[in-house]
Amino acid sequence: FEPYFAHEYADPVYAEAVADQSYKLGFSMIANSSWLRDTIISETENSHVELCPNAIDHEVFSGEPKFSADPNKAILISYGGRNTEWKGFQEMASAVAVARVRIPDVKIEWRVYGDAALPPDNPIAPYVSLGFLSPAKLNAAYKEADILLSASWYERFPLFPIEAMACGLAVITTKLGTEDYAIPGETAEVVQARSVESIADGLIRLIR
User: Fold this and answer.
1) What dihedral do alpha carbons 204, 127, 56, 32 form, nearest 10°?
2) Contacts of residue 98, Cβ cutoff 8 Å, sequence gap at least 6
3) pTM of the model
4) Residue 184 carries which DSSP code?
5) Rounded to an integer, what distance in angstroms lies between the CA atom of residue 91 and that of residue 195?
6) CA distance 187 to 197
7) pLDDT digits (tens, 9 = 90+) for 149-192
8) How many CA atoms lie within 13 A of 93 on its CB side?
9) Closest to 190 (Cα-Cα) out of 170, 168, 208
10) Helical spans, DSSP H, in the chain
């Protein structure tokens, strides 16, 4: 929902005004998540919004859970998030740091693909940088991990948690934009966005 991201532009007031007007042109719209559809309807009073969720390619993303995972080691994988604060990378780093302190008997290895707001050797929670990955290499990286960690403040329909699910990973994610496939306690550990404590608690529960 573009008005929410106006602060990323040089002139946020102008960017928000243009984005807001784009929703008032009288067109019927298609949203790719329930959150986006409901947000458009609520924020713009536009009732012509159909829902068409995204899909993933199971020829690329598929796999089975790692039942033989090492109980003394947990491999996390996350998307760095293009240096945007709403991807929640700062909160993820702080939560990983908390988990490393609270469960010192488990070695938590954190792997990150794409750009991130912190460098790999940051003082909060160092990680292994995987760089940018092709779909095939991302599939392989998912299969080497145990848990997908995502903490976005909001998303229209993030693909990385559902890609990881298809590859057999346990997933910890936030709610907005994932509600069409992340069912709390059933298909994912759903935590509170922007809350380091909630993210850390969910991460520790999944590791244990």
Assistant:
1) 80
2) 196, 197, 200
3) 0.91
4) B
5) 7
6) 21
7) 999 998 889 999 999 999 999 999 999 999 999 999 999 999 99
8) 21
9) 170
10) 12-22, 34-44, 89-102, 135-144, 159-166, 196-207
